[in-house]
């Protein structure tokens, strides 16, 4: 339990902690906004694109072996991040962290399932595991700001090394877990096409804002992304054991859950990136002060995550996810005050709505999604949901960073970004409500 919780803490910590280091990294390694977007997205993109293959490796090789490999890869990549002499090395090391994270998350759930065979104990263990992730998410900006204040920006990566090594030592004490599905085939073609499609799409968004949308290289990148996405869908329809089982999306609840998680990740992490740059660049705040400023936001994410189960039982997934997206829209509307250089307290008043909405959406969408698939396919389905959220996060950083670069002056760019977040939040609520209404009417899904 301790080993799996430690890994999940560092995996989620590195999705948020790096945001408070953006300004110190930019000054130390002489980076612009597009470079900072790559620092954030190199990790998120790799994590998203390899997550499903990580689950397949877990099935083929065994959870303990793959889990140990993930911890050691994450530790080595974190050390390289902390020692990186320039931006390209830092981005490459962040890719290594993403590889490690993609191996850790699916294997950690498998290890928990084996360690707690009794259903009630297993549910409690998974709750503890998820709660540790929520705490890590909440504490990330503040812990990062404190570490940077005391030891510099490199410390936020180096701190992962002893934690990962302790987790690896603990994992060696766990009984070996044999693979259940040794005959499961790796979808190499689908995996490569997913990497190309995601990477090219995000690269076009990031570099297009910097170089210009009419540049030949950007147009070629857009064509590559489009061709890769089409080829990926075609390959996945032909494979007997695809990385992404497209037949899952025939269920309106499954499709809506994946869409909701993707939109939630996009608007939350996109605006998190924007706010981090705004506080540090526009207002000149230190990483520690930036971390403190995010506390009303991230604390409510953790509270929303813990409260989601009870709220779901009381009101149902349909109302809960819609309510979460409406809280998003309400909170984002208040963030229009950013463009007017308003005092911090006016901005902080909007954070609880955004944070609580983020906390309740993903668990409720996950619970709804899991009712649509057989237990034997639950791991793959959960992997699809996590990959959707991480993909949305990567696109969010790319899109909102591009708006900050391309739309000037800054207050206009902020307004455009906030209006986009509001529109996407309302769209998420509408799609969710329609999909579950269709499922209720024609299928009678319990998810509602």
Following the backbone from N to C, one meets helices and strands in this order, namely HHHHHHHHHHHHHHHHHH
Low-confidence stretches: none
CATH class of the largest domain: Mainly Alpha
Mean pLDDT: 82
Whole-number count of domains? 3
Keywords: Membrane, Transmembrane, Transmembrane helix, Transport
Transmembrane segments: 38-58, 65-85, 91-112, 124-150, 156-174, 186-206, 212-235, 256-279, 285-308, 320-339, 345-370, 391-410, 416-436
Domain Major facilitator superfamily (MFS) profile: 1-441
Membrane topology: Multi-pass membrane protein
Description of the molecule:
The protein starts with a helix and ends in a 6-residue tail after the last helix. Helix 13 packs across helix 16 (351-370). It has 448 residues and is an all-alpha fold. The longest helix has 33 residues, at 119-151. It has helices spanning 2-16, 22-29, 33-61, 63-83, 87-115, 119-151, 155-158, 160-172, 188-211, 216-238, 252-282, 287-293, 295-315, 317-334, 344-348, 351-370, 378-406, 410-442. It folds into three domains: 1-175, Growth Hormone, Chain: A (Up-down Bundle); 188-238; 248-448, MFS general substrate transporter like domains (Growth Hormone, Chain: A, Up-down Bundle). The radius of gyration is 21 Å and the shape is globular. The model has no long low-confidence stretch (mean pLDDT 82). Residues 1-441 form the Major facilitator superfamily (MFS) profile domain. It comes from Paraburkholderia agricolaris. This is MFS transporter. Its main location: membrane. It holds the Pfam family MFS_1.
